[in-house]
Amino acid sequence: MSPAPHGPSAPGPAATRDAEEAPLLARMASLDPDDPERARLREDLTRRHLPLAEHLAARFLGRGEPHDDLVQVATIGLLKALDRYDPARGVPFGAYAVPTMLGEIKRHFRDRGWAMRVPRRVQEAGRQLADAREALTHELGRAPTVSELAQRTGQDPDDVVEVLESANAYSTLPLDTGSPTSPVQSLGADDEALESVENREALRPLLAALPARERRILALRFVRGMSQAQIAAEVGISQMHVSRLLTRTLSQLREGLGDVEAP
């Protein structure tokens, strides 16, 4: 028995969506910019493509910009694509919209000048530290300490701290995303000097001696688990200042704990 001949293949989801949206796009293009119907169509088409904006924005995560901000920038690109799209050219809207949205996101970063301001040494060392941190987190089941990062990358611990603080100040790729799981935010949470204290009561007098602001920042970071960006907004200071205060305060606690534990 001979096999039945194959019919034409069913259109894929993208082709189906293009076919559904083509009349809407053509209608919108034919209307006057002030026509209320055009505004309604524009809003409907924007809503349909928001998942695409979110997907494209996600490609740029880890570059120092909040995801919501990137989605907003991508949506601006989407609106520009809707306003400029010409159905008569026969190009599917998606094929026109994606480069427009990506261009808007890239322009956003270029206008901010983030890459131009960051020294190349910091960028390269930062990427190396980010790779090391990811590997060590997987191996250790926790965030690595500065000393562990230094040992893995062959860098001096002071240089590691310098790169982390520089990356934090510049909000550069890929160290500081402003999320609680980024390397800058998580360093220190599992510090060896603090883990080595068997009796937590030893910390009480040291914490009591700290200024109120430093105690509050420590509580926000290690009790409430807030990121440095969140702490900065809560306390009303810059994120770089939060990073420096945390580094200095943790150093003071380590020194104090060393004095307590000394025989």
From TrEMBL:
Q: Where is this region: Disordered?
A: 1-37
Q: Do you know which InterPro entries this protein is assigned to?
A: RNA_pol_sigma-70_dom (IPR014284), RNA_pol_sigma-B/F/G (IPR014322), RNA_pol_sigma70 (IPR000943), RNA_pol_sigma70_r2 (IPR007627), RNA_pol_sigma70_r3 (IPR007624), RNA_pol_sigma70_r4 (IPR007630), RNA_pol_sigma_r2 (IPR013325), RNA_pol_sigma_r3/r4-like (IPR013324)
Q: What GO terms in the biological process aspect are recorded for it?
A: DNA-templated transcription initiation
Q: Which domain of life is it from?
A: Bacteria
Q: Does the keyword DNA-binding apply?
A: yes
Q: Which UniProt keywords apply?
A: DNA-binding, Sigma factor, Transcription, Transcription regulation
Q: Bias category Pro residues: which stretches?
A: 1-11
Query: From the Swiss-Prot or TrEMBL record, what is one GO molecular function term?
Result: sigma factor activity
Instruction: Kindly give the Gene3D superfamilies that the UniProt entry links to this protein.
Output: 1.20.120.1810, Winged helix-like DNA-binding domain superfamily/Winged helix DNA-binding domain
Q: Which residues form the RNA polymerase sigma-70 region domain?
A: 46-114, 124-195, 206-255
Q: SUPFAM superfamilies this protein is in?
A: Sigma2 domain of RNA polymerase sigma factors (SSF88946), Sigma3 and sigma4 domains of RNA polymerase sigma factors (SSF88659)
The family database entries (PANTHER family) matched by this protein are listed as: RNA POLYMERASE SIGMA-E FACTOR, SIGMA FACTOR F FLAGELLAR
Q: Any idea what this protein is called?
A: RNA polymerase sigma-B factor
Provide the organism lineage as a comma list: Bacteria, Bacillati, Actinomycetota, Actinomycetes, Kineosporiales
